[in-house]
Amino acid sequence: MVLRLDALERRLAAMENNNRSMMAQFTQLQQEATVGVRRDAHAVSEQRESRGRMEMALRGAQQKLADVDHRIGRASNVMRETQSSIQAMAVQTNTMQNALAASGRDTEEMALARLQEARQEILDLLQYHDTSRKAATALREDMQNMRMKVETLSGDLQAMAHSSRLQEEMFEEETRRTLRGGGGSGGSRIPATAALEGKVARLQNSLKDVESRILHETKKDGIAQQVQNQKIGELQEEVSGCARLVQQDVRDLQLHDSGADPDVPRLQREVDSIRSRLDSRLADSRSASSRADAEEKELKAQLKDLEQKLQKEVSDRTQREADLKNEVERKLTEISQYSDDGFRGVTKLTEGEHEQTKQRFRELLERLDQVESKRDKDQEEIDKLFEKQRDERRKLDRVMDERLDDVGDRLRIAMASLMAAQSELPPGEKAPPGGLSMEEIERLQNMNTTGAREQLMKDLAAKELQLSELSTRIEQQDEVIENKLKMAEKSDSNELGVMGDELTRKADTITFSQERLKKQIENLDERVKESPQEINQLQDRVVAMETETLEKLEKQDVQRRQEVEDLTADVRKKVDEEEKKAAEMARLEKAVDQSHTSVTKLSEAMQTINRVIGGKIKEGKRTREQETTDLKRNIDRLYEQNTDLKNRIKHPGGTVQ
């Protein structure tokens, strides 16, 4: 890269040397112009000599006065034509001044193609915007579907809670019916055992649902405890009744012992009967205690089964609740992730579309700046062309003035020569025959038609034209070099080498064009020296080209105005569309924010539901553990009471004493 920059600098140095050589050539051309002026002065002196010869020829050309008058008339006609041409030039100047107001048509033609490209790009942008809007709509529908799913899930949870409450009410009703049925059975133990077995069977069949099984087993434990308490109360009532009877018998015996002797046998019989009844009742109490032990064992086994089933149901329900909680959390995570991904995707799409829109606006502004710069350049070129035409007209005016001066000088010389010739002749004598022939006189007249002043002004105008063209080309080359250097400075390191190669090729092309231009200038100088008449032809061609250029400029001016108006209208439309797109994108972003907010609220609600459900689960678990602990404590207390009752039944003597 550094080598390329060095080569580019060497190229630029070579171009500067070429420019210096061109300036030297300019100086040489100026010197040549000075030499030409001197040569023209020498030609003027020769012209004077030829005029002297012409004066000698005119002394013998009195018969050609009529021809001279005719030539004077033609000169006046030429003057009138010159004046008319000057007026036409003034009209053309006014036309060019009017054409200066709209000079960007060529650039606008180029801008039209670029505008078409911009339109196509904007259409692509609109299509991309529609695609993004459809994607956002699909995302919104997905969010709505997800919201419906979440609502369905919450409805299922509510339905589960409602079904749990209904099952609890059903089990409570069934428990109440069972309790009423158990209360009606009274002291019969066999139907109570059958009812208990039926209740256990119903409990085993109703263990499918978590909450219903737990509630039912809790109620069943309460019912069993009530039955146990009822049986224990019945036994206590029987024992207390027996104790009252024994005490009554003892009091009767004491009363009889304190009475008369004849009643002793009767009392003895009564004591025997009492003993027999006590023995029967003790036997009944022993059988009742054995049955109570069997029932107690059976109840313990049933309670153990119930505890195992309860623990199993608690563990199953805890596992199901944990699975449900994990599923809900997973769904919430998926929903939040999906919503976050959708929001990020929409945000990225929105940002990308904003960046593309900004890039399009920047490109449009750059293109408008380029159009303005091209228009300014065209304006400068037209100004230069107008200045060139004005200089040419000024030069032509000076040439025509010098031509008129030359014609006047020739006329004065001719009249003076004629008057001198007439004064030299004696009165009444005619001019002597002889002198120059008519062919020689016409040849000399044709040679002297173009005067020295006119020729000198034409040569000077041609030299000035060449110098101005050469300076214009050098300025253009300098501008091209400066533009290329600026572009090379602005481009990055990868493009710098390519631009350096392009600048090198451009520099070679410019050097070659400069050499070709120098050759053309040399050829032009040779052609000017060889044939001055080609200048007139070139001037005619220039006038024709000017006329054609003016016509083209007028046509292009109208077209460019129309294209500029169309471009302005299109740009305004695009700006309005982009503003509408910006509003639409803002609305879309607002909708996305609202959806994100709703999803956030939904996730918070689900977290609240999970927290409440978890709290209820923990509370229910603590309640069940507390109830289980209380049940175990009651069972132990009942077992102790039953043991105490057995001991009291086995040892009734202790109570009597």
Automatic annotation (TrEMBL):
Residues 278-298 are annotated as: Disordered. Residues 5-32, 193-220, 453-480, 514-581 form a coiled coil. InterPro entries: CCDC154. It comes from Amphibalanus amphitrite (Striped barnacle). This is Uncharacterized protein. Keywords: Coiled coil.
